[in-house]
Specification:
The structure is a single chain. The chain contains nine helices and ten strands. With about 250 residues, it is of the alpha/beta class. It folds into two domains: about 140 residues, Periplasmic binding protein-like II (D-Maltodextrin-Binding Protein, domain 2); about 90 residues, D-Maltodextrin-Binding Protein, domain 2 (3-Layer(aba) Sandwich), CATH 3.40.190.10. The strands form three sheets. It has a six-stranded mixed beta sheet with strand order 5-10-6-9-7-8. Strands 1-4 form a two-stranded parallel ribbon. It has a two-stranded antiparallel ribbon with strand order 2-3. A hairpin with a 5-residue loop joins strand 2 and strand 3. The termini are far apart.
Length: about 250
């Protein structure tokens, strides 16, 4: 039978372990940009979507509680530069690497496409010339495309608005994440047979980004370790599959 002294020692050890675990729990302010299915907001204000699910999975593994804010992409980037938002996940953009927004660890890649309705097949880059193309404001997909003034770009608040413009025939095509475009078309009840041939524009990497302010290297290391382990376990692929199921 364990003596009272030994029992007290065990209880003291357990209390100390619990206290240390609680001390390691930190809260970070996360930014969720308003582009379905990456960021979704229900009628009651609940936040969801791919980015929310991925960050929450990282948080559970790393012992970090994320306080999510739902923001337009450009405002979220400004908030990360000031430290008002500390973490998010989005396309890595070399133009931002020198700013106070630091790409920290790769999660997955995503194809950027340009697609129109049936009858508008885009088979080569030259087919984009003179076309009106809707894309999310602030997006950078390919330097050649971004700077091309022969394309009539129509900037929107997200892929959902871009798709709405396409279905109303206000633009000839939409550009953006293949996953996001497919999800928004499906939500609008549009079958793949109603769409033209998609043109592959670029492949982008989705990275966890952290603000350059107030984030120490030990916390970054915890995030990197958790992301790499969750990738090995297939957690992120399962989250993507929850929102995007190719027909």
């Amino acid at each position: 039978m364990m003596s009272k002294g030994a029992l007290f020692g065990v209880l003291l050890f357990l209390f100390g372990t619990l206290h240390a675990a609680r001390a390691e729990q930190v809260t970070m302010k996360s930014g969720i940009f308003t582009i379905p299915p990456w960021g979704l907001k229900s009628d009651d204000g609940t936040l969801g979507g791919i980015t929310v699910d991925m960050l929450d999975a990282i948080g559970r593994h790393a012992g970090i509680l994320f306080a999510h804010s739902y923001l337009p992409f450009k405002r979220m980037i400004r908030s990360m530069e000031t430290g008002d938002v500390e973490i998010s996940a989005f396309y890595r953009d070399p133009e931002m690497d020198a700013n106070l927004v630091t790409p920290t660890v790769f999660i997955h890649d995503d194809n950027v496409i340009v697609i129109g309705l049936k009858g508008t097949d885009i088979r080569a880059y030259e087919d984009l010339t003179g076309k009106s193309i809707a894309l999310p404001r602030g997006a950078h997909y390919l330097p050649k495309f971004d700077a091309d003034t022969s394309i009539a770009k129509v900037y929107t608040h997200g892929h959902d608005q871009s798709v709405n413009l396409l279905l109303r025939k206000r633009v000839a095509a939409v550009a953006g994440s293949g996953r996001a475009i497919a999800v928004n078309l499906k939500d609008q009840g549009v079958a793949p047979s109603e769409m033209g041939e998609a043109y592959f524009l670029a492949r982008h990497e989705v990275w966890v980004h952290v603000s350059g302010k107030h984030i120490d290297e030990r916390l970054k290391a915890r995030i990197i370790s958790s992301v790499n382990q969750l990738k090995l376990e297939g957690v992120f692929e399962a989250i993507l599959g929850k929102y995007y199921k190719p027909d």
